[in-house]
């Protein structure tokens, strides 16, 4: 599979497993899983033939580790980022003292007024390092990195979870816990 097809397939899987499983006629269970054989058959019915080996390649080489297989390898799901309702069964976890969020300058006024909200997703996504936050912010323009006082949030009763690929998730981040870096 060439790089172009790899990226295109990853984007398709993100759409199907995070946002629109009905686009190919699959149904996610309440935890976001779908059987691999059902997914591959549905993709084929919609003109998107993909072998299990190609799926393994996409899952194994995705730089953000967006997808995960069940322990038995029979099912697949997106690790986080869903706009459809799923319960990823992630336990509340004590966060590091500071987490980071990448954005662009055009959103700062709203963020410092309203805080970070999940928007169309189920959770606000945070990273444990500034490098990841810079990459996330760069997708939409010149990046701005926000530091999140996760220790204070946790002490105040806010819950954090961490996905299989290391993305920190929380319901929202009130503005009082944010500061811009740099």
Count the E strands: 9
Return the string of H and E elements. HEHHEEEHEHEHEEE
Shape: globular
Total count of domains:
2
Q: Which stretches of 5+ consecutive residues score pLDDT under 50? A: none
Q: Any guess at the CATH architecture of the largest domain? A: Alpha-Beta Barrel
Biggest β-sheet strands, sense, barrel: 3 strands, antiparallel
Q: Gyration radius, to the nearest Å?
A: 17 Å
Instruction: Estimate the strand proportion.
Output: 15-25%
Q: Helix coverage percent of residues?
A: 25-40%
Please give the CATH class of the largest domain: Alpha Beta
Strand order of the largest sheet: 1-3-2
Report the average pLDDT across residues: 95
CATH topology of the largest domain: ADP-ribosylation fold
Instruction: Give the structural class.
Output: alpha+beta
Query: What's the end-to-end separation, in Å?
Result: 41 Å
Keywords: NAD, Transferase
Protein name: Probable RNA 2'-phosphotransferase
Function: Removes the 2'-phosphate from RNA via an intermediate in which the phosphate is ADP-ribosylated by NAD followed by a presumed transesterification to release the RNA and generate ADP-ribose 1''-2''-cyclic phosphate (APPR>P). May function as an ADP-ribosylase.
EC number: 2.7.1.-
